[in-house]
Design brief:
Layout: E1 3-8, E2 11-16, H1 17-30, H2 34-46, H3 56-59, E3 63-66, H4 69-74, H5 77-80, E4 87-91
Antiparallel strand pairs: 1-2, 3-4
C-alpha cells in the first residue's frame, strides 16, 4: 500500500494513503462537514463498530463445546478461571482438537 508523508504541527510522519484519507475525513467531520461525517459513520458501520454486542440477532450466540479431559488439563484455560467442569462457554472459536 502506498505510503505518504504528512505534517502535523511541527512533526512529520509517514502513513498509508488509506490512513491519510480517514484522517482527512475525521478532521473535516470535526469541522461539521456533512459528507465527511457520513463517510466516518459509514466506515464505522461497515467495520462492525456500531453493532449492539448485546443483541443476539446481530452477534450470534456463544459457542459451547466439550473439551476432552486431556485437552483441558493441558490447556491454558485450566489455569485462568477454573470454570468448574470441562465446559467452555462464551467463545466463538472452533473446538480444540
Amino acid at each position: 500500500m502506498k505510503r505518504i508523508k504528512i505534517r502535523e504541527g511541527d512533526k512529520s510522519r509517514t502513513i498509508t494513503m488509506a490512513d491519510a484519507i480517514i484522517l482527512q475525513n475525521y478532521k473535516a467531520a470535526l469541522q461539521k462537514d456533512q459528507i465527511a461525517m457520513g463517510n466516518i459513520i459509514r466506515l464505522a458501520e461497515e467495520s462492525g463498530e456500531l453493532i449492539d454486542r448485546t443483541d443476539v440477532k446481530q452477534v450470534g450466540r456463544p459457542a459451547l463445546f466439550r473439551l476432552s479431559p486431556r485437552t483441558w488439563k493441558n490447556s491454558s484455560l485450566n489455569s485462568v478461571g477454573k470454570l468448574g467442569n470441562d465446559w467452555l462457554s462464551q467463545t466463538t472459536s472452533r473446538p480444540l482438537r
